[in-house]
Design brief:
Helix content is 83%, strand content 0%. It is an all-alpha fold and 191 residues long.
Length: 191
């Protein structure tokens, strides 16, 4: 009885998300699949934290890669277009490493961006000129800041040694890339 009630509580938010838009949220789906596996296998809270990190890292990596592609097409400053190319390359590499590790650990990662992330990309795509450059760089910097902090934390705190290793491996690259984004902010024309 308790297991059935717990299952209902876990499935209800996903069902409500699906009903609201007619589409499924890939991030919620991935988290739900991992929660189900964790509940079946009686996994610890720290292992659950590792799984959440993997989902968040994968979706952020995909989002930043998409931001990079958008900059290559829409940015007015050559430095931003070049940085967008670098972001796409780095994040695609990171995403592949995360998918490979998730496969080894039997974790589910999102198949696509969430609806909110897609809307944010569409909003950015609707901008042009200096306004696009400012908003794009703000988004990219925020995402990279969050990523480098998460990877730095999990490089020390992940329960699973392989997850700890991948976080420690990519944390310095993410920090350097964040610093590059921050420096590009100084190159933007003043409003």
């Amino acid at each position: 009885m308790l297991v059935a009630a717990r299952f209902l509580l876990l499935t209800l938010p996903v069902a409500l998300l699906a009903c609201g838009t007619g589409e499924r949220d890939p991030v919620a789906d991935a988290k739900f699949e991992n929660e189900q596996r964790i509940n079946r296998e009686d996994i610890t809270k720290r292992q659950e934290q590792d799984a959440d990190f993997m989902v968040e890292a994968a979706i952020r990596s995909r989002l930043v890669a998409e931001l990079g592609q958008l900059a290559q097409r829409r940015a007015t400053l050559p430095g931003l277009r070049n940085f967008g190319q670098q972001l796409t390359r780095e994040q695609n590499s990171l995403g592949a490493a995360l998918r490979n590790l998730a496969g080894q650990k039997s974790l589910t990662l999102p198949e696509g961006l969430s609806e909110d992330q897609q809307e944010e990309l569409q909003k950015l795509a609707g901008l042009s000129g200096a306004e696009f450059d400012r908003e794009w760089l703000s988004q990219a910097t925020d995402q990279l800041d969050d990523a480098q902090e998460a990877f730095d934390d999990m490089g020390d705190d992940a329960y699973d040694g392989d997850i700890r290793a991948i976080a420690a491996k990519y944390a310095p690259t993410l920090k350097t890339t964040y610093e590059q984004a921050d420096q590009l902010t100084d190159q933007l024309p003043k409003q």
